[in-house]
Amino acid sequence: MSCKTVLSKEISSSFREELKATIKSRGIKPKLVGFLANQDPSAVKYAESTSKTCEETGVVFELRKCNREELEDQIVEANEDDNIHGIMVYYPVFGDHVEGLCHKYIYNMYHNVRFLDREETKKCIIPCTPLAIVKVLEFIGVYNPVLPYGNRLHGRVITIINRSEIVGRPLAALLANDGGKVFSVDINSIQEFHRGTGLKLKKHEVRDTNLKLEEIVPISDVVITGVPTPSYKLPTALLRDGVIVINFSAFKNFEDNVREKASIYVPAVGKVTIAMLERNLLRLFDYKSQD
Ligand code: NAD
């Protein structure tokens, strides 16, 4: 068996070091407020690890626990507070998700608009879990640096099993905008996100397919899972030899023998997500001070 397991700690360490050095050398105190309006064990764990990483890197983190009914007012209040540079809402809320980003960033992400300004000095904010998975794919070499920026996934076939508004759908759009052919799987359907043959489209388009999981997984170079149930296991037998597999669900979505087929296995991405959350926070800090 020659599978390499890559841990999120390893992927995130250079980002954490850079964040720590930047915050220290600039003598700034970016502040993040996290809202926890549920008892979900994954959310509580996520909030705890955010707090720990923030402390290590020099970000001021405050966790505010509230009722679901109070959440909206509290978010509005925090948004108006000049001393708060970023807000994090730990899902789930109301059993479903509210969107994590303001309209402009969501629009830009889906339309492949990468900067806020014409001079291209201000990068758009991308939600932290999809961004973390992009960084994982860069780290393990799925992005081909020989190709021009924006096309580095050309030729890659990627399956994502999850199409939530917060992770799976934005991730499919980002990877397709970067040139990949992406199969986006949810409990009801499979869609294809792509920029056409030869990347003739400037931004991705989406089409429904009648293909089955059994047909797309064997032709995928990368399979990314995010099914939030402990019983879900993607059969190893479906995977092609040498596939790259990444799991972002709180539960292991691959079978124990996945290493027999995979060339690279990333079992979790949580630490990279938190590093991206802090990176987004620093961007928001700078944009706020430039206003
Ligand atoms: P969600 O419930 O909003 O979405 C789940 C998605 O999985 C949906 O698209 C659903 O259709 C699909 N799905 C469910 N069962 C399926 C099946 N049998 N076959 C195919 N698709 C199926 O959940 P979410 O917020 O996207 O979170 C998913 C998981 O990812 C959770 O375990 C969550 O804790 C984890 N998560 C991790 C991070 C991180 O940084 N590590 C961040 C966010 C979420």
Q: How do the strands and helices of this protein lay out in sequence?
A:
Elements: E1 4-5, H1 8-26, E2 31-36, H2 41-57, E3 60-65, H3 68-80, E4 86-90, H4 103-110, H5 128-139, E5 157-161, H6 168-177, E6 181-185, E7 190-194, E8 205-209, H7 213-216, E9 222-225, E10 244-247, E11 264-266, H8 270-290
Parallel strand pairs: 1-11, 2-3, 2-4, 5-6, 5-9, 9-10, 10-11
Antiparallel strand pairs: 6-7, 7-8
Organism: Funneliformis geosporum
GO cellular component, one term: cytosol
GO biological process, one term: purine nucleobase biosynthetic process
Give a quick summary of the entry.
This protein has 291 residues and is α/β, with parallel strands linked by helices.
Low-confidence stretches: none
Radius of gyration from CA coordinates: 19 Å
CATH topology of the largest domain: Rossmann fold
Task: Output mean pLDDT.
Answer: 93
What class would the helix/strand composition place it in?
A: alpha/beta
The best one-word shape is globular
Per CATH, the architecture of the largest domain is 3-Layer(aba) Sandwich
User: How many separate domains?
Assistant: 2
Distance between the termini: 54 Å
Q: Number of helical runs? A: 8
Strand content: 15-25%
Bound molecules: nicotinamide-adenine-dinucleotide
Give me the CATH superfamily of the largest domain: NAD(P)-binding Rossmann-like Domain
CATH classification class of the largest domain? Alpha Beta
Strand order, largest beta sheet: 1-11-10-9-5-6-7-8
Strands, count = 11
Helix content: 25-40%
Order of helices and strands: EHEHEHEHHEHEEEHEEEH
Largest sheet: 8 strands, mixed
